[in-house]
């Protein structure tokens, strides 16, 4: 008899649990947009020599903090020569050129080696502003209409999974992610065209990263509070 009483109760509990789970899933999907297609981004600038020459000094190392205008190396410029290899008549003499950091930041790449020959445009160092990091998340085009500038965002970064960072939507890029790809995602002229859902990059400002060593390129998950 007791078994006959318990069975309907258990069935009712199971139905209520399923209904509650379904309600939470729909409600959470209504008030939030979640995606793990996101990563930490920031300003990374390359430093190069304006002239060919030799890198005679290199005064920084990987991880060093630098300020805007700080000298990080010196190039001894190569004097113009004639076809015979001698200095050209009236040519400029060799001169030293200071290579400086364009921003306050941290040296995150240092491919140059003191003493090497350098050419214009080739990166000697890369400087990143790690105090002004953002998150770039890719939002499905079907949901982008619900995303607005200044909406609150919760961010988790895979490397610090126990921490939730606060932020807000800073900018919605006016182009799909595929627009920046070097290779087209589809050929519209082909008879085998398949429609593919596009993604819109959304830039999210972080209020703070605390003392965590967050760097550009780290994977992240975001929850945008859309309602």
From TrEMBL:
Topology of this chain in the membrane: Single-pass membrane protein
Positions in coiled-coil regions: none
GO biological process entries: transmembrane transport
GO cellular component, one term: membrane
Tagged with keyword Membrane: yes
Domain p-hydroxybenzoic acid efflux pump subunit AaeA-like beta-barrel: 134-225
Superkingdom of the source species: Bacteria
Subcellular location: Membrane
Family that this chain belongs to: Belongs to the membrane fusion protein (MFP) (TC 8.A.1) family.
Name of protein: Secretion protein HlyD
């Amino acid at each position: 008899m007791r078994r006959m009483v318990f069975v309907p109760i258990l069935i009712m509990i199971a139905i209520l649990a399923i209904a509650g789970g379904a309600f939470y899933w729909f409600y959470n999907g209504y008030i939030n947009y979640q995606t793990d297609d996101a990563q930490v981004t920031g300003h990374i600038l390359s430093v190069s020599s304006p002239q060919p020459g030799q890198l005679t000094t290199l005064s920084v190392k990987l991880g060093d903090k630098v300020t805007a205008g700080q000298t990080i190396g010196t190039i001894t410029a190569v004097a113009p020569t004639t076809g015979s290899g001698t200095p050209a008549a009236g040519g400029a003499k060799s001169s030293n050129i200071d290579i400086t950091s364009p921003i306050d930041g941290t040296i995150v790449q240092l491919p140059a080696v003191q003493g090497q020959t350098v050419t214009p445009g080739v990166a000697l160092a890369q400087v990143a502003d790690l105090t002004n990091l953002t998150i770039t998340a890719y939002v499905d085009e079907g949901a982008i209409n619900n995303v607005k500038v200044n909406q609150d965002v919760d961010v988790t970064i895979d490397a610090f999974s126990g921490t939730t960072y606060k932020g807000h939507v800073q900018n919605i890029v006016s182009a799909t992610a595929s627009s920046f790809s070097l290779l087209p995602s589809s050929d519209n002229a082909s008879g085998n065209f398949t429609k593919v859902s596009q993604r819109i990059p959304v830039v999210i400002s972080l209020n703070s990263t605390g003392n965590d060593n967050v760097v550009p390129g780290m994977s992240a998950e975001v929850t945008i509070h859309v309602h």
